[in-house]
Design goal:
Layout lengths: L4 H8 L29 H7 L3 E2 L3 E5 L5 E5 L8 E5 L5 E2 L9 H12 L6 H14 L6 H4 L14 H5 L4 H26 L15 H14 E4 L12 E4 L7 E2 L5 E7 L6 E7 L10 E2 L6 H8 L10 E5 L2 H10 L12 H9 L10 E5 L6 H10 L4 H6 L2 H4 L10 H20 L5 H10 L3 H37 L2
The protein binds S-adenosylmethionine.
The site of S-adenosylmethionine has 16 residues, from strand 3, helix 8 and strand 8.
GO biological process, one term: methylation
Keywords: Methyltransferase, S-adenosyl-L-methionine, Transferase
Protein name: Histone-lysine N-methyltransferase setd3
């Protein structure tokens, strides 16, 4: 029977954080530590397997982002940097020699029990299987994967609480609970599998190794076209792209991924192309997507300062709005008892009635959730006729200039500012305290949790400044118009 690498790695799993929603030790060893201490040369492996790697690329430490790909020399715009032939990406349905159909069907059955939103666990099962298999085609790649990941499922319980933000706490707890339940499910399934059909070479797979695999996939997989590039098909097959996944993230990336279909075999190649000129000693970066910090932290284990896509979630709640209007010194009974025509607009905005979706956002490119803005404009208006004259899209737009009049707009924006003050007050600490704590803190997971909550509070403060500027402008306009 083939020896298993997980057997070896299970010794090192004691270095991993004990996986529970309650605890995880500090994130050391560092993100640069690989699964094997001296892993095979990834660039040589890609070239040996028929791929192409630009001669001016090297793998090196990239600041505090772990390892990265660096240009050692000037690279012109448009250059091909990496080309992976179709067999190098690791996907759930990668064809492999030497696996029994039974072993594959065990994996497929396990994958069926993973909810769609946790797709990274499905591909993670495949990754674990290859990690367990001696002689796996992908071992040179897998040996180069990080030994630990800084995603919050591995945070100690204290640091999960330190995030101070309920929507993310909810997601982290959901993932931790899933992993603990899935560990039991995997064990139950594997207990009845014949040794030759065991997908992990007879090894026990626990929540910790499942979490490692899920984090490896969520932080490194890309969704691309599966079989062909025909018009109308979507690019939604998750795959791990050896070497390409050494590129770190930037919203202003200097490289991008393209797929190309071979005319004869119809097989898909994955390429990285220089989107700009790249100077020597500059890291190669890809844009992982226009994501908020919740997703960056949950899936990738880092937080972006002043992330223009970051926002906070609030629940549209009449009592909260009433409290906000009181704080703003605007009294209106319409929040708790809107008139029938106002209710009709709220229903159209999906903020009233059985099908209501009460989650609204503050921050991000829109600054104020259009539905929340329209609702407040309408609730603070007494003039049904003016409201009816406007298209709902105009009422939802912050760039529409005071559609229901200057006084209405000032009252609306001041109510939202007060809503921000209340939201800020729900955080147990202030930014200044967080910054002082950050200076003292040594544990990587604590630092990440504090950085995350500082960014959330900054989103709120930025929105407040933006709206205050708008209110001042409206007030000065109102004065000048007499
Ligand atoms: C696709 S991998 C990139 C290669 C990775 N740095 C490594 O050492 O293997 C994604 C991971 O790199 C790190 N990373 C990428 N971009 C980053 C950024 N802009 N800031 C901080 N960490 C980043 C995070 O740990 C993330 O989970």
């Amino acid at each position: 029977m083939a020896a298993s690498r997980i057997a070896v790695a299970s010794v090192s799993l004691t270095h991993f954080r004990p996986l529970s929603s309650a605890s995880m030790a500090s994130v050391s060893p560092s993100l640069s530590s690989r699964l094997v201490p001296q892993p095979p040369d990834l660039i040589k492996w890609v070239r040996r397997e028929g791929g192409f790697v630009h001669q001016s690329l090297k793998i090196a430490q990239d600041g505090d982002t772990g390892l990265g790909l660096l240009a050692s020399d000037h690279i012109p715009k448009g250059s091909e940097l990496i080309v992976l032939p179709h067999n190098l990406p690791l996907r759930f349905d990668s064809p492999e020699a030497g696996d029994t159909e039974e072993a594959d069907s065990v994996l497929v059955n396990l994958a069926r029990q993973v909810p769609e939103e946790l797709w990274s666990m499905k591909l993670g099962l495949k990754l674990l299987k290859e990690r367990a298999k001696v002689g796996s085609f992908w071992w040179p790649y897998i040996g180069n994967l990080p030994e630990v990941f800084s995603v919050p499922i591995f945070f100690p319980g204290d640091d999960i609480k330190n995030l101070q933000y309920a929507p993310l706490l909810h997601q982290v707890n959901k993932r931790c609970r899933f992993l603990l339940d899935f560990e039991k499910e995997v064990k139950r399934t594997l207990d009845s599998v014949k040794p030759e059909d065991h997908p992990f070479g007879g090894q026990t797979v626990d929540a910790s190794s499942l979490g490692w695999a899920m984090a490896a996939v969520s932080s490194r997989a890309f969704r691309l076209y599966g079989k062909n590039l025909t018009v109308g098909t979507t690019n939604s097959v998750p795959m791990m792209l050896p070497l390409i996944d050494m590129c770190n993230h930037s919203f202003n990336s200097n490289a991008r991924i393209v797929q190309e279909q071979d005319a004869g075999s119809m097989k898909l190649k994955v390429k990285v192309v220089a989107e700009t000129e790249i100077e020597g000693n500059v890291p190669l970066t890809l844009n992982y997507g226009c994501l908020d910090n919740d997703l960056f932290l949950l899936d990738y284990g880092f937080v972006i300062a002043s992330n223009q896509y970051d926002h906070i979630e609030l629940k549209y709640d009449e009592a909260l709005l009433e409290a906000a209007s009181t704080v703003a010194g605007i009294s209106s009974e319409n929040f708790s008892s809107p008139s029938p025509w106002q209710k009709l607009v709220l229903t159209k905005l999906s903020l009233h009635g059985e099908a209501a979706l009460l989650k609204v956002c503050i921050g991000g490119p829109e600054i104020i959730d259009g539905r929340l803005l329209a609702a407040l404009r309408v609730l603070l208006s007494v003039d049904e006729e003016i409201v009816q004259k406007h298209d709902l899209d105009v009422l939802k737009s912050l760039s529409a200039e005071a559609p229901l009049g200057v006084a209405n707009e000032i009252a609306t924006l001041r109510t939202i500012i007060a809503l921000c003050v209340i939201a800020l007050g729900h955080f147990p600490t202030k930014i200044m305290e967080d910054e002082a704590l950050l200076k003292k803190c040594e544990r990587e997971s604590s630092k990440l949790a504090i950085q995350f909550r500082i960014q959330k509070k900054s989103v709120i403060i930025d929105v407040m400044s933006n709206l205050t500027r708008r209110v001042k402008l409206l007030q000065s306009k109102a004065v000048s118009q007499g």
